Amino acid sequence: MRRNYILTFLFIMPGVLLLSRCGNYSFTGASIPPEAETVTISYFENKAPLVNPGLSQMLTNELKDRFQSQTSLRLEDYGGDLNFQGEIVDYSVRPVAIQGDDRAAMNRLTISVNVTFQNRLDEAMNYQTTFSKYEEYGSDQSLGSVEDQLTQQIVEYLVEDIYNKAVVNW
Question: Average of pLDDT values for 2-29?
Fold first, then answer.
């Protein structure tokens, strides 16, 4: 019995030591340089032609919440080791799935965000990218009746993409 414990220890220990040497690893998938301590997330201004008044605040807060809940980084107003800036450039509704009578069976709400990410500790990780996500809803529904739910879902997708491109190195 004791021999089994020793063998198990010998097989597991090298893996544990290897993980501890791989920088700032977390089981959420984030791979952040160990010397990184702070993150700055600037307000995402809404420059889309069609403006949802709460979208800027929602996106900014969701990105901050993601970093606070999934990393040990401190939020700073400026000068963080990791920096995010951006703007909302598209918020639009377009018909999709056109039926035989030239009516749309579905509508698509799309949100696009330009993001500039700067990693002061590893410039190779810097990026400037436009992220775009959408959700569809039936043409029998008004945008007003589904807008809050769809916007929240799209923002979650966008935050996931922004976060993953910055700190998840799979």
Answer: 46
Class in CATH terms, 35-167:
alpha beta
Asked if 52 contacts 147 with a C-beta cutoff of 8 angstroms, the reply is: yes
Note the pLDDT of residue 1. 57
The whole-number pLDDT of residue 145 equals 95
How far is residue 17 from each of residues 32, 58, 85, measured CA to CA in Å? 18, 40, 36
Q: What is the pLDDT of residues 39-97, one digit of tens each?
A: 999 999 999 999 999 999 999 999 999 999 999 999 999 999 999 999 999 999 999 87
Q: Examine the pLDDT at 27 and tell me if it is beyond 50.
A: no
Is residue 3 exposed (0-12), middle (13-18) or buried (19+ Cβ within 10 Å)?
exposed
With contact defined as beta carbons under 8 Å apart, do 166 and 63 qualify? no
Beta strand pairing call for 127-138 and 104-119: antiparallel
